[in-house]
Amino acid sequence: MHPMVKPALRRAWRERQTVQFGVTPAHAVVVGPVDTATGALIELLDGTRGLPLLREEARAIGLPEKQVDLLVNRLTSAGLIDDPLAAGPAAAALRKRAGALDRLRPDLASLSVIHPEPGDGIRRLAARRAMRVQVRGAGRVGATVAAVLSASGVGRVEVLDGGCVEPWDVAPGGLPAESVGERRDTAARQLVRRSAPDRPPRAAESTAASGGGEPGLSLVVVAPRDGLAAYAPDPATAEGWITTGTPHLYSGVVEATGIVGPLVLPGGTACAGCMELGRAERDPGRPRLLAQWRSGRRGTVPACDIALATAVAGMTAAHALSFLDGELPASMGSRWEASLPLLDWRSERITPHLDCLCSADGKSEREHTSGFGPPHDTMAG
Q1: For residue range 71-96, what is the model confidence (pLDDT) as tens digits?
Q2: For the segment 99-149, what is each residue's pLDDT rounded down to a tens digit?
């Protein structure tokens, strides 16, 4: 082990013998009492020394050897220690791709703050390369989500959409102005490739990571250009994902409201069918409205404020990455909305419906979600 105090956490002395690691309440840790010699030892925990050399350094400043192990164990228990050489073969392979790792260093620093175990950050970052995500929609929201996921190290990001790029599809972080007139799927594929920190994994890598054959979808992000299909999704569209157990996350902008969620874990959390049945119970006029909203051809460009779309895309990508990294974000079984001009984010819990065929009803949340997210040993190698 080459212990390193996590450099992403800013260090400051609260008082003479108390050190605070981190700034924000969500991640800050206070350690004390810390005497002057131990403070000097903390300065040596920079990842360049193994434990034997650190013990020698401790003797040189008048500390017993066991102080090194006690300090390292204490800081590790507090989630403050990383190991720049840990985390298995996938992480070692990422370290060898120096250019890609340099692009991803801010993401790695963030993951090191979130996940306390030494090496957890780079292990999860390396695991993203073996993942396959499909984004349904290449408008202002969907294309930006795809670009962010690719830039975050997700190895395979596929974008599905039809038609050609229109001027109103262009967005910073999404499809560029020079793509207007190109096929949307082609333009989105080029965007994903440009955004990636590294070349996509070769077929042999993908096959090995999946245990043979085409890797399955880790997640589908449903981000249609017409945000109505995210706000009031058609259950028929999701039938295949429910059948195959594919997690999917809805996202979009309708009129002047941004939507993130729900993240649907099939068989575990409420799906589009549960959402539609529940709303129909509360509002008997809802089915008639839906039929009219979904029918006919619209001749106007749907409203989609560029700043709101960018915010929704960022939030969606963050929720998607949290799930891909093994967490269960707040969009799981819930939808978050923000409306212009006040932009107050609010959540609505989507509960499983007894009459829905998705089989999510009647289970505890622990049973619902225990099988989702990449397992720890898979990420390690």
Answers
A1: 999 999 999 999 988 878 999 999 99
A2: 999 999 999 999 999 999 999 999 999 999 999 999 999 999 999 999 999
**Cα(114)–Cα(120) distance, rounded to whole angstroms?**
9
Write the single-letter amino acid at 199: R
For 66, the token pair is 């066991």
C-alpha torsion 99→103→104→109, nearest 10:
110
Chain segment 235-249, per-residue pLDDT in tens: 999 999 999 999 999
Domain 4-82 grouped into CATH 3.90.930: yes
Q: Does an H or E element contain 153, and which?
A: none
Sheet holding 248-254, edge to edge: 156-160, 132-136, 219-222, 248-254, 257-264, 334-339, 346-349
Mean pLDDT of the chain: 90
Contact between 353 and 279 under an 8 Å Cβ cutoff? The reply is: no
CA dist., res. 243 & res. 246, Å (int): 8
| Residue ranges of the chain that CATH labels 3.90.930 | 4-82
DSSP 34-92: --HHHHHHHHT-BSS--HHHHHHHHHHTT--THHHHHHHHHHHHTT-EE-TT-SHHHHH
What are the φ and ψ backbone dihedral angles of 253, each rounded to 5 degrees? -130, 125
Q: Which residues of 327-365 are buried (b: 16+ CB within 10 A; e: fewer)?
A: ebbebbbbbbbbeeeeeeeeeeebebbeebebebeeeee
Kindly state the DSSP code that residue 23 receives in the 8-state scheme.
Answer: S
Give ranges for CATH 3.40.50.720 in the chain. 126-380
**Which strand (E) or helix (H) includes residue 352?**
none
Report the CATH fold assignment for 126-380: Rossmann fold (3.40.50)
Q: What would the DSSP string read from start to end of 187-234?
A: HHHHHHHHH-SSPPPPHHHHHHHTTSSSPPPSEEEE--SSTHHHHS--
> How many whole angstroms separate alpha carbon 64 and alpha carbon 352?
59
Which SS3 state, helix, strand or coil, does residue 132 take?
strand
DSSP state of 251: E
